[in-house]
Design brief:
The chain has helices at 16-26, 38-48, 66-75, 92-99, 113-137, 147-160, 176-183, 185-206, 229-239, 264-276, 293-314, 354-363, 366-389, 401-405, 409-419, 433-438, 440-452, 484-488, 495-510, 522-531, 547-550; strands at 8-12, 31-35, 52-58, 84-88, 104-107, 166-174, 209-212, 217-223, 249-255, 288-290, 318-327, 334-346, 350-352, 395-399, 427-432, 456-462, 479-482, 514-517, 535-537. The protein is an alpha/beta fold and 554 residues long. It has 3 domains: 4-136, Rossmann fold (3-Layer(aba) Sandwich), CATH 3.40.50; 147-291, Reverse transcriptase/Diguanylate cyclase domain (Alpha-Beta Plaits, 2-Layer Sandwich), CATH 3.30.70.270; 305-553, Alpha-Beta Barrel (TIM Barrel). Bound molecules: ligand C2E and calcium ion (2 copies). One calcium ion binds next to loops.
């Protein structure tokens, strides 16, 4: 046993002689405090609870006997914090005290001091070891299994019930991070505790076990259910005491009838994947997602893309297409710039849309390498148009929020603009709206720096995220790009059209031109023109096309 700290033992006996005999034996290794009866003992335990490593407890005492002390310790839950060895001359009372949670017993008259010391040491050590195991077995806050133990117990569950159909469930929720920031950590802790309580209540219905993975994600391994609503319902009930339903959204990913040929961790990866696929979906009906073959296919597809990325860069499989933007202020639309859009001509899969690989590459940072390739290619293309056609076509490139985190982003852009002899005003950047809400301070710094160098910065996908219209007033931007979804549903005088008009109005007041993207039809074009929109981009004029075809717009 380590000697990092001296342990204290409480000896409880009504006879002074007995206290002295035991005390003398134990004093050689431990600090000792004494109590003369049960009442006295409980008081000492209360006032020294954290420092007492063991109680030696006589059973027969006046005022309050040993078994009553044990009962109290049980009721107060102290028995799981401090081991007790009972002292007795009467063998038959041992059983009851063991039942009441005593760790061991010593019979009077006492054995040799060595035997007593050995049993004391043994009890303390056993107890401390099990406490350590206990501490790692459960999450301190939620009292759910920690991940390693969870997977171990889930596997044991499989062994004991080889034929049971089991579901692997992953639970996480939105806005925890935000709530933690807004309402403080202890409030965050309270949320986690309530969720854990709700999970325990749900398990009473479904059976099974639960563990906690990271702060805000939980695992459940339960016998197959047809309806998982009961689980969310129990948790929501538990949370309702501290949160409004709108403040948090639970998401449950289910790997139903989980295939036992896969390792346990992988089965839960499937559940997590199903859970993550609910990200960004806002409908209240989409709180539960069951893992299916499509997701399995997507997983394989994603792995394929990741694996092929480096080769694709080397072999120039990524192609940059350009979609023209037209200024529609005058009588005739005038080409004013182009947006660079990447696509992947994959040797086996054919053309792969950026929607399928950009979010994937954003997750692991590969997007920055890809984007820099696109940015460099775009800078060269502006140069080529200057040289071959004798015109300047400014190009805007897409910037992922991941790119902005790189400290040398601006240096890189400055370098490629210089190398190709371009003016900074010819090289524009599109940053999606939601990036502005994630790390505002940093992004504003970067954007202001780029603008001070002469670049134009467009806020992309405006209206798709959570930013409010009045946020615009504090954002350093040059151009507003309205999200496609806005345009999709406009009809004369309808709600969407009114919103478009409102955005145009605000932008006008701020002196910021507006690009409407995704414009496909003549009606859309006319409505937008009438409403005072400045610039149009969309299939109405052209799809994104390779540079070789672009000269027809010049
Ligand atoms: P985005 O930046 O909003 O780009 C506009 C998307 O709308 C493009 O899709 C474009 O082809 C499409 N589009 C243009 N006009 C119309 C139209 O009239 N109707 C409809 N339905 N769609 C239209 P694309 O090329 O599939 O790109 C999808 C997204 O992928 C882009 O959305 C952008 O977020 C991302 N992306 C594309 N290229 C890059 C890149 O080089 N780097 C980064 N980081 N993201 C890129
Ligand atoms: Ca864009
Ligand atoms: Ca956009």
């Amino acid at each position: 046993m380590d000697d990092l700290f001296e342990r204290t033992i409480l000896i409880v006996d009504d006879e002074a002689v007995n206290r002295e005999i035991l005390g003398n034996i134990i004093l050689s290794e431990y600090k000792v405090i004494y109590a003369e009866n049960g009442k006295d003992a409980l008081e000492k335990i209360h006032s020294n609870a954290s420092s007492i490593s063991l109680v030696l407890l006589d059973l027969l005492m006046p005022v309050m006997d040993g078994n009553e002390v044990l009962k109290s310790m049980n009721e107060e839950g102290i028995i799981s914090d401090i081991p007790v060895i009972v002292l007795t001359a009467d063998k038959s009372s041992e059983i009851q005290s063991l039942r009441l949670g005593a760790a061991d017993f010593l019979t009077k008259p006492y054995d040799s001091p060595e035997v007593i010391l050995a049993r004391v040491r043994h009890s303390i050590q056993l107890f401390e070891n099990s406490k350590i195991i206990h501490a790692t077995e459960f999450d301190k806050l939620t009292r759910l299994y920690s991940p390693d133990f969870f997977f171990e117990y889930a596997s044991q569950f499989d062994q004991r019930f080889p034929d049971k159909v089991m579901d692997a469930l992953a639970l996480n929720f939105t806005r925890f991070h935000l709530l933690n920031q807004l309402k403080g950590r202890s409030f965050g802790d309270e949320i986690l505790k309530q969720i854990a309580d709700g999970i325990r209540k749900a398990l009473l219905k479904t059976g099974g076990i639960a563990g906690q993975n990271e702060a805000d994600s939980f695992y459940l391994y339960v016998p197959h259910q047809d309806d998982y609503g009961i689980i969310l319902q129990k948790i929501n009930e538990s949370l309702s005491s501290i949160l409004k339903p709108s403040e948090i959204r639970l998401r449950l990913g289910v790997y139903s009838d989980s295939d036992r040929r896969f390792p346990m961790i992988q089965r839960f990866d499937h559940a997590v994947q199903a859970c993550n696929s609910l990200r960004g979906k806002t409908s209240a009906t989409s709180d539960i997602c069951v893992y299916d073959d499509k997701m399995a296919e997507k997983e394989v597809f994603d792995a394929h893309l990741l694996q092929d990325f480096e080769a694709a860069i080397e072999q120039k499989q990524f192609k940059v297409n350009y979609q023209p933007k037209f200024n529609i202020k005058g009588d005739k639309p005038v080409l004013c710039s182009a947006e660079a859009l990447v696509s992947w001509i994959h040797p086996e899969l054919g053309r792969v849309r950026p929607d399928l690989f950009i979010p994937l590459f954003e997750e692991n940072g590969l997007v920055t390498k890809l984007d820099r390739y696109v940015w460099e290619e775009s800078a060269r293309q502006i140069r080529r148009w200057k040289d071959e056609l004798g015109v300047t076509i400014p190009v805007s490139v897409n910037v992922s929020r991941v790119d902005i985190a790189a400290p040398d982003m601006t240096d890189f852009i400055t370098k490629i603009v210089k190398e190709n002899g371009l003016a900074t005003s010819e090289y524009m950047l599109e940053i999606t709206e939601s990036a502005y809400t994630s790390d505002q301070k940093h992004i504003i710094e970067v954007v202001e720096n780029l603008r001070s160098l002469g670049h134009k910065v467009e806020m992309d996908d405006f209206g798709s995220g959570y930013s409010s219209l009045n946020m615009l007033t504090s954002m350093p931007i040059d151009v507003l790009k309205m999200d496609k979804a806005f345009i999709r549903n406009i009809q004369p005088g309808n709600k969407e059209m009114k919103l478009v008009e409102l955005v145009l109005d605000i932008a006008k007041n701020l002196g910021v031109p507006v690009v409407a993207e995704g414009v496909e039809t003549d009606e859309e074009y006319k409505m937008l023109k009438a409403a005072g929109c400045d610039i149009i981009q969309g299939y109405y004029f052209s799809k994104p096309i390779p540079p070789s075809e672009f000269s027809r717009f010049v």
